[in-house]
Amino acid sequence: MRIPKYILKDPTKKIFTSVESSPRYRVNNRGRRVRVDQYKGIFAFRGADGDWIVKTEHYPTRSEAKEWTKSKIREHEKKGFAMEHSGLTLAGYARVTYIPDFVDGLKSRRTEKKYIETAIDFFGENALLDSIRPIQLRRYKKHLEKTCGKFRGDGVTPMVYSNGDRKGQPMTRSSRAVNAHLVRLRALFNQAAADEVIATAPSFAKLIETSKETPRKLTIELDEHERLLSICDEVDKDGNLLRGHLKLILIGLHELGCRRAELHQIRVSDVDLDAGHVKVWEAKRKVRVQRETPITETFRKAIKNYRIMEQSSKSLVFGEYLDLKRSWNTAKRLAKVRTQLNLNDYRHTAISNAHEAGATKTDIQLWYGHSTKSKITESVYINPRPDYVRVEILKIDAYMQRKRDALEEKRMAKAKDVSDDILESDTLE
To answer: Which terminus of the chain is more solvent-facing, meaning fewer CB atoms within 10 Å of its CB: N or C?
Structure first.
């Protein structure tokens, strides 16, 4: 089958259909060669690379072949962009679209590219994006578990463990590293589906291990937070703030309850003082989305004191992501707070504060970036403090006391009715 030249030369033509007579011959019972009429339905469309992709099907009658071509046109109109991009490779989509649009702007772009290139090396340069199935993803996971991606100088011999029980054995990836590779690949497929490059993303069910985050009972008390902020105001002999960069970050963590990775992506344009919220990019989502976290009065004052809104709209409110381990440990030591506290405890503190203030579970999940289907909010992040628990217990005690009083009144009323009945019977006698 040949597509007409006038169709090939016209870049506006996206679809071509035709029905051709395609008879076949067979030998009957008498040994004679007889002709069997059949018709070939032809459906072709222009792919993403400009080449034509052809599909054919044989039918005994012309009308059936024609009906098939019509059904393919309807299917093409329904799937649209995905069918036109049929034949697009994983490597092509990753390098031409996904990495430039979603990876190159990240601080961790080198690591993110390494995750994607590992998948491309396994599936091959010519692996079609819409041909990868869950069974291939399971094989990819096993490959990740058995390898480590680290080699000696020759680039071929894998690294081995130098000590311990596994001394001399090839190094392997941890379950966390395997999950990281799979999560990045899942994000790529989900974005391809969102771009309608593929009809649906393959399922990663039971491939990515769910987080086994254990409840952490530590929250930062208000007096500890105030002491940490006062330590950040200390100056050196020249009058320069020693930990000025840390103070605004601590205020942001305490008031917004963000993850650190989310906090350092907030730009001036994301802060809307009039609407009373900050747009925060979700750090743990399949596709990048923003949530709206309400602004507290303390955060509003900090924004004004630091003159954040006077800066360029593209400026980062909390600066670049830096390693704060040294300054954080020094601040804890000087402020004489618990040494086991870490910066993520501010997130637990903010969520616990919202819960104790009476915010609903749905609001907390929307504000702080938890899935509405997940139970992590109440099982991990909400840590009621002793004072709050005592107040709630007093409410329970008061409620139970009201029930006891009502029961006692009911008993007294019943006893009074019985005594009245006895008195009435004595009078009648």
So the answer is: C
Q: Are 234 and 242 in contact (CB under 8 A)?
A: yes
- pLDDT tens-digit readout, 208-256: 876 555 566 788 988 999 999 999 888 888 878 778 789 999 999 999 9
Burial class (CB in 10 A: 0-12, 13-18, 19+), 13: middle
C-alpha distances in angstroms, 142 versus 123, 161, 175, 209? Answer: 13, 20, 11, 13
For 2, 399, 409, the CA distances from 211, given in Å and listed in that order, are: 55, 39, 53
Considering Cα of 274, then 276, then 281, then 287, what sign does the dihedral take? negative
pTM of structure:
0.49
Contact present, 121 and 113 (Cβ < 8 Å): no
Q: How many residues belong to the chain?
A: 429
